[in-house]
Amino acid sequence: MNVWNVIRGLSIRQIFRLARILILQPLLIYPTLKATRQTIKVCDLLYQKKHHKNGKANAFRHGLWNLLICQRTFRVTKSREKSIIWAKKITDLHEKLAPNDPLETAMDLHNNEIGRAIFYAMIDNSEEEMIAVLKENTKNAKKIIEIDSILDHKKDLVYLSED
């Protein structure tokens, strides 16, 4: 993922919205970018291009992205809650700036939350242990076909289609 290509595709309003968030937390920019790059690298290695679709690989990518943002920014914030708030703010903004249809957006937001929850519960564990739990959750991800069914899977990753 080329960050500059993404930024070039934004409207002026979207750029100002992103800039406002980043200006308020400049020390969190680098760890967030590093987490984003690592997420893509890991997902490309594990799933090739399947993580760009709406299957289990995509669910894993969203969970991993949030988990890694939390973990990387925690080194700066020293606060579990601040890192989780930051990851939510950044990944929610991503969903607003690159919108999908409502079901895909709901799926992504839900899977983002699962990644943050794993970080919260396993903060004292290693990155490898957190990722192992996320991989296990991915194996057990639940297929959904409507937004309301997400509520039936509050602790599970969800996906829309087979990889």
UniProtKB/TrEMBL annotation:
<dbReference type="InterPro" id="IPR054246">
    <property type="entry name" value="DUF6973"/>
</dbReference>
<protein>
    <recommendedName>
        <fullName>DUF6973 domain-containing protein</fullName>
    </recommendedName>
</protein>
<dbReference type="Pfam" id="PF22322">
    <property type="entry name" value="DUF6973"/>
</dbReference>
<feature type="domain" description="DUF6973">
    <location>
        <begin position="20"/>
        <end position="142"/>
    </location>
</feature>
